[in-house]
Design brief:
The strands form two sheets. This protein has an eight-stranded parallel beta barrel with strand order 1-2-3-4-5-6-8-10, surrounded by five helices. The protein has a domain of 254 residues: TIM Barrel, CATH 3.20.20.80. By secondary structure, it is an alpha/beta fold.
Amino acid sequence: MGKDYKFWKFMGALWICSSVVLYINSCSAQIPANRDQTSRGLKDFYQKYFSIGVAVSSKNLSGDEAKLIKKQFNSITAENAMKMSSLQPREGQFYWIEADSIINFGLNNNIKIRGHNLCWHEQTPDWIFQDKDGKEVSKVVLLQRLKEHITTVVNRYKGKVYAWDVVNEAIDDNPSHYLRDSKWYKICGEDFIAKAFEFAHAADPDAKLYYNDYNTERPEKRDRIYRLLKDLKEKGIPIDGIGLQAHWSLQEPTEKQLTAAIEKYSSLGLKIQFTEVDMSIYPWEKERRERKSGESDQFTLALQRKQAAQYAMVFKVFRKFKAAITNVTFWNISDRYTWLDEYPVKGRKNYPLLFDTNLEPKKAYWEVINFKNK
């Protein structure tokens, strides 16, 4: 009986030890291997690859979020403060306060600044498309207004903003269409795209100019974006690169899709920036809706692991194509607040970033800096 007791006591201890080892292994992506990993930021790990950015508002520029920005990132983008409706809500009346605060934060902390954006079909004030009687303006008038806006904005930040998203999301979501049927397109045709780049280049010849869009890895949209970029290049329009927004999910893109997109765009001699990176824990949806009864928004351990694996995959691909990629920017700082918390499902929490609601690194963070992912 004594020998049996000792045997089962030994087996019990062995089982406990095995369980602890398995638990540690399952959490290893969340535990820093050494002090160096906690003292350095994303920008330091990727110093030899590309700059690492984040989208911010003026409210992020103090307190614990500002501290995190300065440690982790060496590039910032204004989430909303530099969009047309924010800067010029009424004709000739510019609001610079918030945009200036972001610019000054970057300059004071040796952080590069991306400009976002100069021409978009959303967050554009109605006045730009209308005359004093509320009627639709002519192509000549609209292009002149676009020129005045771009010239004023780019001139103000000349030498401070190193890159601009000049035109945003001009390709239609419908695979059977080419360009989006926006007011810009209805009034100007596709000329507004080339003109926007020309106006921006004239205002600051040293700034890098990007076309920016989403779902850029889906083959049918990828090919239409490629068509636009190729056309601009052949016409001698001053475009330096493409911004791939990278609003992704656990389901997409696949490694094959991402690789194919990078190879296709870079074949035009364009640089690539991933401008709005996040990894939704939910499948892609476009249309807004209410949260369904019983629909969970819990960030389970299984979802954490899937998200970490997806982030590991995309950053492995990024590192592979470091010659073509010049920046990777996350869209928002942490899960404390993200634009996906209310879009497209009202009242649903999302957890798409590398830092949790307490600004602590998540499993995905440790995978992103794990360069052993070959």
